[in-house]
Fold:
Amino acid sequence: MNNKIRNGVVAVLLASFAGAAMAVSDEEMERQRQIHQQRIADEKESYLQNSIREVEDSARKGVEQIETIMSLHESSTDGLQFTDEDRFRIYRIGAEEGHGAYQIKLAEYYLEGKGVEKSVEKAKEWLEKAEQTWLSSRLSVESLFKLATVYLDDPRLEREDRGAYYVFQTCQQAHPEACYRTGLIFEQGRLAEKNEELAAEAFRLAREGGSISAVHKHLKELLKGGEQEQREAFGLWMKYAQMGVDRGSDHEFFVTAWYQVGAMYLDGIGTERDPVNAKEWLRRASEAGHPEAKLALGGI
Structure:
């Protein structure tokens, strides 16, 4: 075999070996890629399941900030999203462990049909369990107030009298919003004998405790009064308006305060008429989304 032929044969063989080696290499690379992807998927699933177990453990312990915990896990765990069904299951875990806040929440899910078929009777059963939890001194003040409001606000339960009783109990433990609801009950005389003195005292306790609802009610009543009451109302609205500015907060109450101050400046109620200051406060309220402020600005 001459050199030319031999070299040709060698070249063909080398090319064949290179092609085979390249084919093997491509197959191996694809296999390794699939192994890597499966490992990532397994790790992701493992992390997801660990997150779910941690949330379930928190429910068993009765951690009342369970919604915050679920949100934190959702934001930090890729692919984790708690559905209404998931939340119902988690609240049931805590409810069956005897945690009152979970029993009340589970009842709300039954009332709303969230994650479970709607059932007023099931809701009643779990609310009764929450009452037993309270009787054994294992229900927080906040949860007792929640129990009261569920009974008061859902006529399907036909237990407003119980709601009134529990809201009275919660007010005695210095819960501001419970004292506000207590004041409304005595003011309206629907679930208890009408008593203006007790209503006024409950509203006072609510305001001093920081109930926004009670403060707002008090300010509206002052505005209906004479010049002295209106000046007092303006001073209080200005106090809350400035508080919102200092805190950098656009909470609905502070936005309302900005609007009220602007409107009172504009109409000269409780203070001297001042269109310049009126425009400034109304502009602030308008930018925060207050609809009446936008209308008032258009008329200046």
Q: What stands out?
A: The chain has three domains: 38-125, 140-210, 212-300.
